[in-house]
Amino acid sequence: MNYIKGQKEFFAGIGQIQYEGLDSDNPFAFRWYDPNRIVRGKSMAEHLKFACAYWHSFNGNGADPFGGATHIFPWDQKADAVDRAKDKMDAAFEFMTKMQLPYYCFHDVDLVDYTNNVAENERRLQAITAYALDKQQESGIKLLWGTANLFSHERYMNGAATNPDFHVLSHGAAQVKAALDATIALGGQNYVFWGGREGYMSLLNTNMKREQEHLARFLHLAKDYARKNGFSGTFFIEPKPCEPTKHQYDYDAATVISFLRQYDLLDDFKLNLEVNHATLAGHTFQHELQVAADAGLLGSIDANRGDEQNGWDTDQFPYNINELTESMLIILEAGGFQGGGINFDAKIRRNSTDREDLFFAHIGGMDLFARALLIADKILEKSSYLQLRKERYQSFDTGKGAEFEKGNLSLEDLRDFAAANGEPEVKSGKQEFLENLINRHI
Ligand code: XUL
Ligand code: CO
């Protein structure tokens, strides 16, 4: 991937970001992420499939509940919505090319501003989709996933697919249809549903059962429409327990998996897991990855981190090598992502106001994942990590333990085994040894 200077440059003064290795002191270079380096038979680029999140990088203007925009974008100036959107897209493709980000992800309204008119929104999205197709072909950058924003507009304050008003639900469907059309036209590899307001603020006014049935019906209709129109990618549900609603139906990986199973959606849907959503649900990210991997549903991830001192979704760029190393161990053991990749659903801080800050954020995140990949590979290949876990369960590998796993023993058989074999020997879980092993490889 190589940036070639066009007519306008939005990130002037910043050139192509390249791998320079550990000896480099250049803050505009990768020290670990070497896209062509082969790890476990695949290039780093293929393992990691990094994606840029359009919303945080090109729309998120630093506003928070206490104050307005601090990031003033030069690509957000033109009067006509589609012209403005084209400028933004030029900036986005310049950034992604300079950063060597091979994929991107968007919500419909990230690409182009929407109105209250369904047909006009479709026209705008089609116009910017045609432009995006050219940009993709020119740069080689691909669409990891598209989605529809069914949470920002006031009409969705009580949800979209789970709104108690059918009329609102129909507007959600109109948006999803157009976003699916755009995703298909752009060769999008996946399509995401994050249930932003699919939940409730108070049970006093909520028929939870009916809302969840509506959500399932809505997902089936979207899936059927997309399949009928040639979409062969994977649908992802992105779990999050709360925020903006008090309670979201897609609470965590385990909840989503049982929902998919209950409503017969397992053939088409997998999970897109986000670090900060896991911690909001009271889990580690590793826990969520393991739950999804064990169900064969580890589709993709949204990379970011929370803040340990507060309880909301701060969407900061990744920083914690221990967390990522343990995560990469699970991802590698699962055989990688199923269809997805690593989308930086992360934003630079309100007071990170220099244009170069977006580069530092992505360089840091990409380097950290690359480093975690190398460390995890080393741990799997050269340490006793896997062996120790295997040995911990060895009593189920032979004899009565193996018979139990096969389903050949009754409760009485277990009782007889206990009575005949006396008290079990004390066995250490070796947690501190394993924690040291991880740190030793870092
Ligand atoms: C919100 C969030 C979303 C989804 C896409 O917390 O993560 O940006 O990733 O709708
Ligand atoms: Co996300």
From TrEMBL:
Q: State how the cofactor is bound.
A: Binds 2 magnesium ions per subunit.
Cofactors per UniProt? Mg(2+)
Active site (catalytic residues): 107, 110
The coiled-coil segments of this chain are none
Q: What is its main location?
A: cytoplasm
Can you quote a single GO CC term? cytoplasm
Q: Provide the assembly information.
A: Homotetramer.
Q: Which GO annotations describe the biological process of this protein?
A: D-xylose metabolic process
Record's family? Belongs to the xylose isomerase family.
Q: Which reaction does it catalyse?
A: alpha-D-xylose = alpha-D-xylulofuranose
Q: What is this protein called?
A: Xylose isomerase
What residues does Mg(2+) 2 bind to? 274, 277, 313, 315
- Give the highest taxon in the source lineage: Bacteria
* Compartments, as annotated in UniProt: Cytoplasm
Q: What is its EC number?
A: 5.3.1.5
User: Which residues are involved in binding Mg(2+) 1?
Assistant: 238, 274, 302, 345
Alphabetical list of HAMAP family matching this protein: Xylose_isom_A (MF_00455)
